[in-house]
Amino acid sequence: MEDLNRRTLLKTGGTLGALGAATVIAPATPWTWSPAESVPGVGSGADPKGEWDPEADAVIAALLDRGEVPKVNKILRSWTKNGQPLPAGLPADLRDFMEHARQLPAWTDREKLATAVRFNQKRGTYLGVLYGFASGMMSTVIPKEARAVYYSKGGADMKDRITKTAKLGYDIGSLNAYQPDGEMIVTCVKTRMAHAAVRHLLPQSPHWVHVAPEKKPISQADIMVTWHSLPTTVWRNLQKWNVPIAPDESEGFLHSWQVSAAMLGVQDQYIPASWSSADSQAKQVLDPILAPTPEGKKLADILLGLGYNLDLSLLSRGVLGALTRFMLGDKIADWLDIPREPVWSPLLETAWGPYVAVREGALNVGVPKEAYWLFDEFLRQFVLFYMSELHMPINIEIPVINNPK
Ligand code: HEM
Asked: Which of the chain's termini has less CB crowding within 10 Å, N or C?
């Protein structure tokens, strides 16, 4: 029955797509994930599709209405480090909100965060590919996110927008992410404020209003969907590739993302307490809603061209397409009109598993030397890509307009 519904929906979507309107409108499934599976283990269980971020939304909407955002953005450019006091000159209501929003949740466990760093150091090479590609590409088949990004100001430079989110994924693993000299708290607070602005602005976009199935974007449920496209998707792929991960490192990695969800304004009752709880929530909120949209396809096309201007031969459109197909599966690759690549698709399917096993010391032989070298070089080029393209400081600003196009 579910299949039939999806097929029917997709067919309808195809027709609408051909007419140039929205594609699939995913059926709203009731929220049944229990707060017993969350970090505090209790909660009201209210459907997060009807929850936003009232505290941030009110302050930022007022700021936009008072025309104070450009001044605030300018002042906040100098606020970059977690431990830095807020700069002078901010409106009082914003300052109060930010002082509160920058506090780590009471359940933050510093020891777990330190273990997360160890995990990130050991697995950094895989993480570049996974955040950049598995998560980045997945965001293009999350319809609400693709539309919100496309029609908001950031949509005018989608590559910049998507690389910023990928960088956030990468930054979360940096040595000092949540330490006073790190930047993750600042990044989260600024992102939370940008999201609040989007909630105020997008409903004023005639383009977005025309295609969006909701009245107000970026609900708590939407944030968790995107959250799953990041750590849960990374974790699922590492499992699939049989990458051995020590239990404390796995927990540390999860914890760093639990903290980031809270810092982005997600209520504790929606933040999964364990990987199995995360997986069960993702099965409910992420897996069933994935679908192509015209906006997401354009986004994916831009992402596939990310290596174009770089001197990194293995990050070509064909190889990145093969990687997408390998990591996200045939269905998603077909949605995005990514052709099967004749050399890389079979190579990834046959040699990636043994390559990872050799790399992790679980096998001594089994991969031809050339394939081993190629994959090594491929991972190295991804790291180089991060270093060259994403080394600039993230300058997250509160948008004041939508995408004018
Ligand atoms: C902005 C990350 C969830 C839509 C941003 C920015 C970051 C970010 C880092 C700032 C980028 C920039 O300055 O261009 C995240 C993370 C999420 C999440 C880590 C979840 C864990 C979502 C969701 C949506 C969304 C669920 C929509 C349904 C947007 C939009 C912007 C934005 C429209 C503003 C772009 C602009 O016009 O400036 N997000 N986001 N995000 N995000 Fe998110």
From this structure: N
Residue 24 pLDDT greater than 60, yes or no: no
Element (H, E) at 127: helix 110-129
| Tokens 């309808």 found at | 12
The residue count of the chain comes to 405
Interval between CA 295 and ligand 1 midpoint (Å) = 15
Which residue has its alpha carbon closest to ligand 1 atom 14?
A: 161
Please give the tally of structural domains in the chain: 2
Q: Answer yes or no: do 207 and 326 share one domain.
A: no
SS3 call for 107 = coil
Q: Is the CB of 144 under 6 A from ligand 1?
A: yes
Structural domain range at position 145: 111-184+194-289
Distance in angstroms (rounded) separating the CA atoms of residues 276 and 281: 9
Q: Are residues 262 and 342 in the same domain?
A: no
Q: Say which residue, 50 or 18, is predicted with more confidence.
A: 50
Per-residue pLDDT tens digits for 158-186? 667 766 776 777 778 787 899 999 999 99
Q: Are residues 225 and 321 in the same domain?
A: no
Question: What ipTM does this complex have?
Answer: 0.98
260 and 342: one domain? no
Alpha-carbon distance 212 to 368, whole Å?
Answer: 49
Please report whether residue 53 resides in a domain: no
If you measure from the C-alpha of residue 47 to the centroid of ligand 1, how many angstroms do you get, rounded to a whole number?
Answer: 21
145 lines ligand 1 (CB under 6 A): yes
Please give the distance, rounded to the nearest whole angstrom, from the Cα atom of residue 330 to the centre of ligand 1.
27
CB of 255 within 6 A of ligand 1: the answer is: no
Do 134 and 229 fall within a single domain?
yes
314 and 262 share a domain?
no
pLDDT at 3: 29
Look up tokens 């051909």; give the residue. 18
Whether the CB of 172 sits within 6 Å of ligand 1: no
